[in-house]
Design the sequence.
């Protein structure tokens, strides 16, 4: 019952005292991290309302926006990831959680279209079934920062079809298509037959699309292929490769493009065509990915977190790599 | 096409430059208020992520929380209002939008259980159908700050039944019950037969209820009756009256209680019993409400907004009573 004696009297709350009182009533549990998250959430939420003098109508509009966003979500649609994407939050979360040393491949955001049912295919397999797509051979490697190949990495790869839709966006989706999981070989190599990616609009028939219109923003992403790398002991690494010259290369609606991830496609030459069993002149994507270990990733994340929090003037300690107030 | 030339290059976005770039891309429209709201929203959202170094797992947990909140919403349930209520935001929004001079009745939050189908009843009518409720006669007046009665005010009144549920919380809800609309008479009077309100838990079988458990908070509201006053030219006024001595009087889960809104019930005496046609000894609620005009309300809101924004060091002007940056 110690809890009750700590509970503040919640009476006569005003614009000026509601924030500390909400934080105090939220502060009765044992989970230090959750308490810190709620402290910051409530502070920012209330400061937002105070700085904007948010009107009752605007507040209700926002609540109904969130309601509609929730209600359009389904097994194959995640409107809140889209919202996070277009507000730059997803880029920020990825940057905070998966910092990279200068010699590793940079990350990019997950987006809402990864699924967990991609088939594991042998290297060299065709992962795209769209007959309208322009065939593209991808020849890649995955190595560590010393240049050593990393074998046995599961690489989850997904892209749209030639109409700019992921398979899950088709109501009559059958088998997964334009997605697969490969495993890197002893030389760290993986390769597959896909299609040349195309630029496409993010789903814009819901509340997020309407918000983009209100903001005078377009809803397009430049052409890209997603890659996710998984191997025990290694950083869970999500990135994408973007095609140079795409009309949306410098205005990605979800802020995912990094210069180091922009690539030029080549054409398959005669020798490669024979080796990989594709027609000469097929589009060719080549990329050498450099991944880091989980230990390297966490150490770098901790180092950058500690520095950033100190720079923000926050007295924090890291517990399980996540900051909580340092009250000692 | 001036728009396009202003568009920043969105490339190589990082923890440090994502915020100004997101704000710039959101800043292409014409609506100054919307641009300011988005500027503040993005700034606070990103600062929240930077101060907490929000993990990918926490981010995904939050997105799924919002998804579930949206999906539990229905015609008769609004989980986002509940969320706003338990985070103190609703209290804040009401305080900002409906400030009261010292001689007017204070406001309280709307809550998620107002409906638009309450029947308009004559004064003196019975608005509660629950036979288990303890009968309560309410005799009220509505006046201006000079003490003059205000006639013709529509007063929307709603309370729970004796089990602590609003009618809409019963899946077999038929006619509206424990709710009505009255109209004040020439003397500013309105009166009705309801039931003694009881304390009750807010709906806690959804994500908001689970959050309260995680935070070590209870989900109860002290016994109260809601009142909403509407008349053209007068402030749209929402309040509630709370019973003194309720176990949750000082720990309302949604921060609604103000000392000036806490009342003692009396018992109906012989004379009143005859006058109002109720048994002697029936519970009696008496309250004189004081409302202000829309003009008074907006003037006070503007005055307080201007002062608060200045105190926050923000250079703003009010357009339609809402702040936008003053760039002149």
Sequence:
């Amino acid at each position: 019952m110690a809890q009750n004696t700590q509970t503040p009297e919640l009476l006569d709350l005003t614009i000026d005292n509601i924030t500390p009182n909400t934080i105090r009533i939220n502060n009765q549990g044992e989970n230090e991290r959750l308490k810190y998250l709620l402290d910051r959430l409530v502070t920012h939420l209330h400061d937002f309302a105070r700085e904007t003098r948010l009107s009752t109508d605007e507040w209700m509009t926002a609540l109904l926006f969130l309601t509609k966003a929730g209600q359009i979500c389904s097994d194959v649609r995640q409107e809140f990831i889209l919202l996070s994407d277009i507000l730059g939050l997803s880029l920020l979360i990825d940057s905070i959680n998966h910092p990279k040393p200068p010699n590793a491949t940079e990350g990019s955001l997950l987006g809402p279209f990864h699924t967990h049912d991609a088939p594991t295919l042998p290297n060299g397999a065709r992962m795209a079934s769209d007959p309208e797509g322009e065939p593209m051979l991808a020849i890649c490697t995955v190595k560590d920062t010393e240049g050593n190949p990393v074998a046995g990495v599961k690489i989850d790869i997904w892209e749209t079809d030639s109409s700019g839709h992921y398979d899950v966006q088709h109501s009559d989706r059958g088998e997964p298509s334009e997605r697969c999981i490969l495993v890197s070989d002893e030389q760290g190599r993986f390769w597959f037959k896909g299609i040349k990616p195309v630029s496409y609009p993010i789903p814009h028939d819901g509340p997020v699309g309407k918000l983009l219109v209100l903001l005078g923003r377009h809803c397009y992403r430049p052409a890209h292929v997603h890659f996710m790398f998984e191997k025990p002991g290694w950083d869970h690494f999500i990135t994408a490769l973007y095609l140079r010259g795409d009309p949306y290369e410098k205005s990605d609606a979800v802020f995912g493009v990094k210069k180091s991830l922009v690539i030029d496609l080549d054409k398959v030459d005669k020798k490669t065509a024979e080796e990989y069993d594709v027609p000469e002149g097929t589009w060719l994507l080549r990329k050498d990915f450099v991944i880091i270990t989980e230990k390297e990733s966490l150490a770098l994340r901790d180092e950058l977190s500690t520095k950033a929090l100190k720079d923000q003037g926050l007295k924090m300690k890291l517990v399980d790599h996540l900051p909580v107030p340092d009250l000692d």
Summary: Chain A touches chain B through 87 residues (CB under 8 Å).
